[in-house]
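Bug #77: duplicate submission created two jobs. Keeping one. Sequence:
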Amino acid sequence: MPGPGQASVWDYPRPPRVEPSSEHVVVVLGGLVVLETRRALRVLETSHPPTYYLPLEDAAEGAFRPAAGSSWCEFKGMAGYLDVVGGAGPDGAACVAPSAAWTYPDPTAGHEALAGHVALYPDRMDRVTVDGETVRGQD
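Kept job's structure:
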């Protein structure tokens, strides 16, 4: 049960709602800021925590590369997975989080705004913050 001032995921809509967000989102991997934006899209869907989709054009160069696999969402369409490439580790090699992000290159009607955006698994990054608050992965 949510406390005072907290939202309940059971109050979110189905199909999901996409809304613009000017919150400051920062994603760090391997000590490198791989994406920073104030132009995120926030997706609210029944029984799911809010998911932030971040514009790929705000990503560091080379921060995302295609990965194997795909999945289907009945509302958003076919998702493709991406590896996230961060800063160099102790051995000098880039830190890579395999298949740690996804995107909808050709989203279904009603969710077209998601094209050109990426969502990530926050627990696979060094740190993800929204307006300075650390994001935790879903348990």
